[in-house]
Write a structure and sequence with these properties.
Elements lengths: L4 E6 L5 H4 L9 E6 L1 H10 L4 E5 L9 E3 L5 E3 L6 E5 L8 E5 L3 H15 L4 E5 L3 H7 L2 E5 H6 L8 E4 H9 L3 E9 L5 H16 L1 H9 L3 H13 L2 E2 L3 H16 L13
Parallel strand pairs: 1-2, 1-3, 7-8, 7-9
Antiparallel strand pairs: 3-11, 4-11, 5-11, 5-12, 6-9, 6-10
Length: about 260
């Protein structure tokens, strides 16, 4: 009998295509939903076998492996990972960081250094855009809060970090991927996660409708986001972009070490 794999996933809309099919197979997957940072902590503690964790978490352990071919990414604007600023980028002195994901925090630090040419003071903050930009010149917000934020009402400019990364590197960016330790996930389940991604991508209309909860406008916006901004998969270009990001993060001291990508 195939063992049940303990899964930790994020509850954001952009992750739903990867978990859509898993919820329908409780005999194979025991799924719990949390913030990305919590998923990472559960994986580190061994409380889950596999986590859909921020991509930078891969560097936390030499025993971590990635599920091949599966990832949440973008090539260009992502819409849901953004810097919201009340000043021109070159004038940002204090920047509030959403505490929900270490990958996005690392990404903004890399972009500040290599793309924007600034060295602001970074302040950790909960995902409250009004509070962030009242206390600081700008704020990093991720996930559904970033997607839904009415930045214009707050007098803010939105700078899309997916767009900035691709403009700087010419490569896609991978925000999260299935990550676990060697030997914890049977080969059959690895293949099943690849199939689940394919099923989820084919079900984008249903995923958007679930998110919209009967609101036609919200459903339409969700579908446009999933189709136009998100990219699912982890092919050669995505792997190259992910490796570059991880190397930059390690060089900035945001992770323990450099390491090459390894897969189940």
């Amino acid at each position: 009998m195939t063992p049940v794999v303990r899964i930790g996933a994020v509850g954001y809309l952009n992750a739903r295509p990867l978990t859509w099919a898993l919820d329908a197979a409780p005999d194979q997957w025991q799924v719990r939903y949390d913030l990305p940072s919590i998923c990472a902590g559960l994986l580190e503690a061994g409380e889950i076998d596999l986590g859909l964790v921020p991509s930078i978490e891969y560097l936390q352990s030499d025993s971590y492996r990635l599920v091949p071919g599966v990832g949440i990414g973008s090539r260009g604007p992502v819409a849901s990972v953004a810097l919201f600023t009340r000043r021109p980028v070159g004038q940002i002195r204090r920047l509030a960081l959403d505490t929900s994901s270490r990958t996005s925090v690392a990404l903004i630090r890399i972009l500040c250094l290599h793309r924007f040419g600034i060295t602001p003071e970074f302040v950790m903050h909960g995902p409250d855009l009004a509070g962030m930009t009242a206390a600081c010149d700008a704020g990093l917000l991720i996930g559904d809060p970033a997607l839904e934020a009415d930045h214009a009402a707050l007098g803010l400019t939105k700078i899309d970090l997916g767009e900035e990364w691709t403009a700087m590197t010419g490569l896609p960016f991978i925000y999260a991927a299935w990550t676990g330790r060697v030997g914890t996930v049977p080969r059959g389940q690895v293949l099943a996660l690849q199939v689940a991604q394919d099923e989820g991508v084919r079900a984008l209309d249903a995923v958007a409708a679930e998110y919209g909860r009967g609101d036609a406008g919200a459903t339409h916006r969700a579908l446009a986001y999933l189709r136009d901004n998100m990219r699912y998969g982890l092919g050669p270009d995505e792997a190259k972009g992910l490796q570059l990001f991880l190397d930059h993060a390690a060089d900035l001291g945001l992770a323990p070490r450099r390491r090459r990508l390894e897969f189940f």
